[in-house]
C-alpha cells in the first residue's frame, strides 16, 4: 500500500486566505471593508472561543468584525430583532449566528431571519435548497471546506462512492448534495444506520460528521479510501479513530488542523464575496 496522505487543512486555508488578502485590498481601494457580524447568545465558553477566533482572523486579513453579545435569557423575538438590525446595515456583509443557542430559543426561526445575501454560513432553508440544486452563493461552510480540501489535493470525486455519516442540515445533508452534484454516488448514513460498518467499507470517500468521538473505526475503512473527519469533540477529538483508520486510508484529515481551519477560511471567503457583490451593485 502506498503512503497515506495527510490532508493538511492549515495549508488549504492559507492558500484561500492568501487569495482573499489581494481581494480585500482591491475592495479597500474602493472604500469597502468586508464585514462579518457574529452573534453570540449566552456565555458558552467554547462558542465564545470560536467567535473570538473568527474575529481575530478577520482583523488579520484586514476585514471588519462586529460582535453582538446577547445574554442567555434573550428571547427568540429579541434575537430576531438583532438579526434584522444587521440585515438592514449596509456596512455588514455577512451574518453568523453562533451555534448552539440556548434551548429556549427557536434556533431555526432565528436562522431563517438572516437575509439570504448575508447568509454566509449557509444556514437558511433557502440556502440549503440552492445548494441542493447546485447554485448556492454561500453553501454551508463545513461542507464547502470538505470540497475545498478534496479539490486542493486533486482527489477524484466523479464516479466515486461517497459515504457520509451524519444527516444534519448544515453538514451531513448539504455535503451529500455537493458530492452528488459532483457526480459521486452518495450513501448518507447516521449513527442508527443498521450494519453501518459494512456500508462504510464500500466508500471510496468517507465523510465522518456524526458528532461522536472516535466513532469510525479502522476496520470500517476500505483500503485506499479517503477519510474526511468533520467532527470536533471535547479534547480536540474527531469522529474518526485516527490511529486505527490511518493505516487503511489513502488520505485522511487530522483533528485538529484538518477541516476546521478551512471552514473558517470559507466563512471569510463568503463574506468577501458578499462585499464584492455589493460593490458590483453600486457601480
Automatic annotation (TrEMBL):
Q: Which residues form the Tetrahydrofolate dehydrogenase/cyclohydrolase NAD(P)-binding domain?
A: 140-278
Pathway, per record: One-carbon metabolism; tetrahydrofolate interconversion
Provide the reaction this enzyme catalyses.
(6R)-5,10-methylene-5,6,7,8-tetrahydrofolate + NADP(+) = (6R)-5,10-methenyltetrahydrofolate + NADPH; (6R)-5,10-methenyltetrahydrofolate + H2O = (6R)-10-formyltetrahydrofolate + H(+)
Keyword annotations of the record: Amino-acid biosynthesis, Histidine biosynthesis, Hydrolase, Methionine biosynthesis, Multifunctional enzyme, NADP, One-carbon metabolism, Oxidoreductase, Purine biosynthesis
Name the family. Belongs to the tetrahydrofolate dehydrogenase/cyclohydrolase family.
CDD domains linked to this entry: NAD_bind_m-THF_DH_Cyclohyd (cd01080)
Tell me which Pfam families the record gives.
THF_DHG_CYH (PF00763), THF_DHG_CYH_C (PF02882)
The record's function comment reads:
Catalyzes the oxidation of 5,10-methylenetetrahydrofolate to 5,10-methenyltetrahydrofolate and then the hydrolysis of 5,10-methenyltetrahydrofolate to 10-formyltetrahydrofolate.
Question: What positions does the entry give for NADP(+) binding?
Answer: 166-168
The protein in question is named: Bifunctional protein FolD
| HAMAP family in the record | THF_DHG_CYH (MF_01576)
Q: What is its EC number?
A: 1.5.1.5, 3.5.4.9
Q: Does the keyword Oxidoreductase apply?
A: yes
- Determine the domain of life of the protein's source: Bacteria
Q: Which organism is it from?
A: Paenibacillus filicis
Q: Where is the Tetrahydrofolate dehydrogenase/cyclohydrolase catalytic domain?
A: 7-121
Describe the subunit structure.
Homodimer.
Q: Which gene encodes it?
A: folD
